[in-house]
Amino acid sequence: MKRTSTLFTALLLAATMFAQGWKANYGGVMLQGFYWDSYQDTKWTNLESQAKELSEYFDLVWLPQSAQARNTTSMGYDDYYWFTNYNSSFGTEAELLSLIGTFKANGIKTIADVVINHRATTAGWFDFPTETYNNVTYSMTSKDVVKNDDGGAALTQAQKDGVQLSDFMDTGEDWPGMRDLDHNSTNVQTIVKAYLQMLKDKFGYAGFRYDMVKGYAGKFTALYNNATKPEFSVGEYWDGDINKVKAWVESTKSNNVPTSAVFDFPIRYTVRNAVNNGNWAALDGVGLAKEAEYARYAVTFVENHDTEDRGGNSHQDPIRKDTLAANAYILAMPGTPTIFLKHYQANKNDIKNMISVRKLIGINNESKAVKYSSSSDFYAFTTTGTNGNMLTVLGPAKSFSNTNRWVKLTGGYHWAYYVEKNKANFVWASLASGTYDGEQSVTLTAVSNDANAQIVYTTNGNEPTASSAKATNGQALTIPVGTTVLKAGLLVDGVVKNIITRNYNIVDFKPYNIKVYVNADNADGAWANAKMTSANPSINFWIWGGTHKTAKGSWPGDIVTTTEMADGKKWFVKEFAITTSTDVVNFVFSVGAGSPQTVNIENIKATTFINISSEKEGEKNKVNVVSTGIDNVVAERNGTNDPYYYTLSGQRIAKPAQRGIYIHNGKKVLVK
């Protein structure tokens, strides 16, 4: 009887843990693995190739909605398929399964973007897909659409079509353009539960990010989480009013316990206002992460795909400056920080260092943060972690001189992290793990209350011992070209303590220039019409990617008139400097005011010839790229001038020793 009671108690505790939506004292950090139109950077294969590096810093990666949506190219918020088609804009179903499996093997848990407020239809207003999964068929009908969908327009259409809508009104805000689902419907509830369970069971998602939870009552989030028991749940309740956001968390309660965390929009707006206005004292504003009762359920962020500046006429509501200081703020605060992919890509070493300090000090989602001091030009606060105390100083007046108590570990533009040396005992390495171009330097710093502590280290991956190489406090080590595994610890009373590891891949890269040639002869009949045959022909280059962007800053981009002759043909030509081993250039070409235009041409990193032709008759407003310099596999020839090769996933390597297909001099080549 006692054993049965113990088992029952254990099961009850496990269920309660699942039901609470987010773990207590959770020290993880999440990466938002996409931005708007991030089709190349967020390709499942691209993300998978970064799994090892990401795993050193991120515990969770939030992916975009991963099924095929209504539109061929889509970020997934016009969700259509739920069960049967996972060949999306980011890759195939097999690639998605491989990505999540690789993440899991590297200790990363994956969060699914779940769009259940609304759903797309095929051609009419109410023709949802019928799908079969595990021998069960799921189908929604017009009766699964709320009665007041689209402000009454759906009801008008239903009457015209001779069909019925639900008898229930929307339990949240209306969203025009797609059908708002009636979560009071038993059929909708059954399908949503099966969908979420499938995401866990088939794909291996650990949790859910619920899109637009303002659109339906919070009690339904509780219903779905209780049924499927995700390890993590976070809702997008987009509102800066902290009382409304807290009320949503309360609305997800089951047995008086919240079943979901929520994105901390209030703290995001606090940070945006402070840094955009240059009033650093305003960082003392509101945030769920600042309230002990709600910090556990606060998923903090400073930018996402909806707030970022998308360029053109879609400027949204971005952090316009001091991106690093903004990230340093949330990474030193309670809550679970979420780092935006663009911020991570642009500032890898800084953000990696911020995360490393957070984890070194043991800051988690229920840590305590207290204001230390502030004025209009700086803001300072302390955070208590499980391994010590940390001081964060932000703003242009960020210098701090109390070295008797605090030791500066790392910092950058308008941000600095200090630790309290009397409560710490570890080594800090200034260069984060990762891939770098050219020989690097890393500084080792000892933070200890023992004056006799010594730094010991190895560079071959072995655990340091008392007899390993020793470094003085503040000594810089050179990291050469190649692979280096640095391990360093503190030698105290003959024992090496608190060993840290850094993995470095140093690339022998030298910047070089490339040229991009686009056909100017118009020989095939006229994709560019009169612009190609006029006295002053031109073409528009819309440019992005790597270190490159359109100088003009608005569509249709930079006007190029320069031409060169090659292989007996005339080409528009533009030169680019490739400045890093990961640098690429992406294009859309157009003529006139920007129409017709090509599809995206991506990942150009070597001199390339791009041939463009018109579509078939009757579709002259569209343009196809019919060939580029990397379309055809050719045998490798001697005498090529580019010393670098690239794998098909884009990794730069020396001339390969293994037989295979690689990109070299802008072409796919077969190395035998």
From TrEMBL:
Keyword entries, A-Z: Carbohydrate metabolism, Glycosidase, Hydrolase, Signal
InterPro entries referenced in this protein's UniProt entry, alphabetically: Alpha_amylase, GH, GH13_cat_dom, GH29D-like_dom
Enzyme Commission (EC) number: 3.2.1.1
Catalyzed chemical reaction(s): Endohydrolysis of (1->4)-alpha-D-glucosidic linkages in polysaccharides containing three or more (1->4)-alpha-linked D-glucose units
Top-rank taxon: Bacteria
Pfam families, A to Z: Alpha-amylase, CHB_HEX_C_1
Family listed: Belongs to the glycosyl hydrolase 13 family.
Protein name per Swiss-Prot or TrEMBL: Alpha-amylase
Species of the source: Prevotella aurantiaca
